Amino acid sequence: MAARAVGLLASLPLCAQRSQVLRPIHRLLSCPRTVAAEIKREEQSSGSVETGSEGRTPKKTFSEVQKERREQAQRTVLIHCPNKISVKKFLKYLSQHGPINNHFFYESFGLYAVVEFCQKESVTSLQNGTRTPSMGTEAAIPFRSRVFNLKTKNPSNPTSEQSRVQCSIHAPPSSKKLLELLCYAESIDDQLNTLLKELQLTEENTKLRYLTCSLIEDIAAAYFLDCTVRPFGSSVNSFGKLGCDLDMFLDLDEIGKFSANKTSGNFLMEFQVKNVPSERIATQKILSVIGECLDHFGPGCVGVQKILNARCPLVRFSHQASGFQCDLTTNNRIALKSSELLYIYGALDSRVRALVFSIRCWARAHSLTSSIPGSWITNFSLTMMVIFFLQRRSPPILPTLDSLKTLADAEDKCVIEGHNCTFVRDLNKIKPSGNTETLELLLKEFFEYFGNFAFNKNSINIRQGREQNKPESSPLHIQNPFETSLNISKNVSQSQLQKFVDLARESAWILNQEDKDRPSSSRSQPWGLAALLLPSVVNSASLAKRVRKKPASERIKSLLESIKSSGPENATSTNGKRTVSTQA
Ligand code: GTP
Ligand code: MG
Question: Within 10 Å of residue 306's Cβ, how many Cβ atoms?
């Protein structure tokens, strides 16, 4: 579910674009308390899990991060600006409504500014000072949102202070650029870390995701006062790549909580409500009405599709101003819990995210994953496979879900629809792993492990962290960690699984070869991870037949021979090296 990319300011050199932290120009306009926190946050690596430096400062829980980000988003507005403005005057103009804590610009169908005030009241003040446009022949629906249009009074007479502003980047680098960066890395470990740094969500992109949820919440609140719209999935689980979709959860459970205990004397007051035959029908009705609302009144919400008969009913739409492809669901609390679990795994060891990003990128480069649903493996399943693999190392790099449950206390207890979703939420209570294996070794071993995994009889299970007999005959069985009778990869066909296995074997072979043939003097030749992202040269079907059931050394030997005998027509360059392709 790839999002439409947000515009890229091509004029800046890539390294400068990525490393650049776009600090607000006018700290003076800002509130001092939050500025200090802001600077600290900017100093941390952008997009990384906000957990503090490893092992020393206490790490934030998922709920703490969500709460903080949500509150920040509620004080934030989105403003469509003229292409050239004076940033100084713009901020001065806005600061009449109150001090500004933070701002940044980006491009998506024009120039947008994200402006975070220090106080929520400033947003109301800005709304009160804003007019509804008169539309000439068309009619405007007077919906007062937090998305604004800024007009200049003399557009034909720009002042010298009006200039193009610096924009933050919300799109991943091109595959050509990425491959170049990987070729210039120092080692395979460095390559995996570079890939993570280039593809992970930036601080600004994360802010924009929370803001978009907050804007959708404003619309949903027109019907369901006190509802919450929370991001989940890769936007928050620390495995999100720039350009990934925005999964949102419309949480209506909070509504009841405010009044749940307000009883006095012999009386108990209840709302009169409509009853429907099932929870699923209630979900469909709620999403249907919110879908209509987004379609009719949501500024910039376009292409609204109501997909209500899916296993998990959803409303899909594009949010034009942010550039995100959004999936809105409700009654999907377990997915939120899965996001929290993945966030914990991602934060426990710095190697986890680097490995997951590389495997996801590798799978995408070889069309093992796709943005359209089908019989292919999903990013969610791939992440589970990496977690499982890291649980199987000796000593384990990640704990099993059962051991995280053992560490839980009474406050962590969580049962959703009869499923036990309890695990420890405080990262500081989990002992770090003593395993010191390099990313290079882990990458190679990942491919070896799954290139030889007995998928025909075994299931992958992160709850127990060990292989188990498959309870059903789907080609790939990955147990849903919370709804344990379900298989999250039930959709995967035998041929897609075989393709995965063949490519894993080929990749293990390439990495083993590289041990003997370390980066050539010319860094422009793809090597290590970069070589793995190139189109496969080996005919998968014949390769699979030849390498099956042979010991590793023999497999590698026969693979080598099969590649040699496949002749130069399959390779894209001579001397055994392949050339950089832009189609990763
Ligand atoms: P991207 O490909 O980057 O969007 O990764 P993602 O993790 O966000 O995946 P996706 O958008 O497909 O799904 C969002 C979330 O829904 C996931 O993170 C999971 O929490 C949950 N989810 C997705 N697929 C399944 C599934 O097959 N079973 C279950 N139980 N949950 C799923
Ligand atoms: Mg997603």
Answer: 20
Counting residues of the chain whose pLDDT is more than 70, the rounded percentage is: 77
Domain residues for the domain of 326 are: 203-254+277-335
The reply to whether 295 and 357 lie within a common domain is no
* Ligand 1 proximity of 379 Cβ (cutoff 6 Å): yes
Would you state the pLDDT for residue 211? 98
Whether residue 104 is found in the same domain as residue 122: yes
Q: Would you say 200 and 356 are in contact if contact means Cβ atoms under 8 Å apart?
A: no
CATH number for the domain that contains residue 532: 1.10.1410.10
Mean pLDDT of 161-190: 89
The mean pLDDT value for 477-496 works out to: 96
- Sequence-distant (6+) residues with CB within 8 A of 300 are 147, 319, 320, 321, 322
Question: How far apart, in Å, are the Cα atoms of 52 and each of 42, 59, 146, 529?
Answer: 12, 6, 32, 28
Chain segment 500-511, per-residue pLDDT in tens: 999 999 999 999
Q: How far is the CA of 558 from the centre of ligand 2 (A)?
A: 40
340 lines ligand 1 (CB under 6 A): no
Dihedral through CA 251, CA 297, CA 222, CA 272, nearest 10?
A: -90
What's the pLDDT at 20?
38
Could you tell me if residue 365 is inside a domain?
yes
Based on the fold, state whether residues 294 and 353 are members of the same structural domain: no
Lowest mean pLDDT among 17-26, 286-295, 416-425, 434-443: 17-26
pLDDT band with cut points at 50, 70 and 90 for residue 257: low
Read off the pTM.
Answer: 0.84
Q: Give yes or no: residues 360 and 489 share one domain.
A: yes
pLDDT greater than 80 at residue 49: no
Query: Is residue 480 within 6 Å of ligand 1 at its C-beta?
Result: yes
Question: What integer pLDDT is reported at residue 138 of this predicted model?
Answer: 76
What is the residue type of 502? D
* Ligand 1 lined by 245 (C-beta under 6 Å): yes
Q: What is the mean pLDDT of residues 493-518?
A: 89
- Contact partners, residue 113, CB within 8 Å, separation at least 6: 78, 79, 81, 90, 103, 104, 105, 150
**What DSSP letter does each residue of 108-174 carry, written as one string?**
SSSEEEEEEESSHHHHHHHHHT-PPPP-TTS-------SEEE---S-TTS--TT-EEPP----SPPP
Residues, CB within 5 angstroms of ligand 2 (ion): 233-234, 245, 247
Q: How many domains does the chain have?
A: 3
Distance CA 207, CA 212 (A): 9
| 3-class state of residue 416 by DSSP | strand
Ligand 1 nearest atom to the CA of residue 1, by list position: 4
Contact 297, 143 (CB under 8 A): yes
What b/e string do you get for 468-485 counting C-beta neighbours within 10 Å, with b at 16 or more?
A: eebeeebbbbbbbbbbee
| Residues 190, 285 share a domain | no
Q: Which run of H or E residues covers position 192?
A: helix 188-199
Report the C-alpha gap between 170 and 167 in whole angstroms.
9
Q: What angle do CA 292, 315, 7 make, to 5 degrees?
A: 100
Q: Give Dmax over CA atoms of the chain in angstroms.
A: 88
pLDDT band at 261 (very low <50, low <70, confident <90, very high): low
Q: Is 536 left (phi over 0), alpha (psi -120 to 50) or beta?
A: beta
Name the phi and psi angles at 364, rounded to 5: -70, -40
Beta strands in 152-245 (DSSP E): 163-164, 228-232
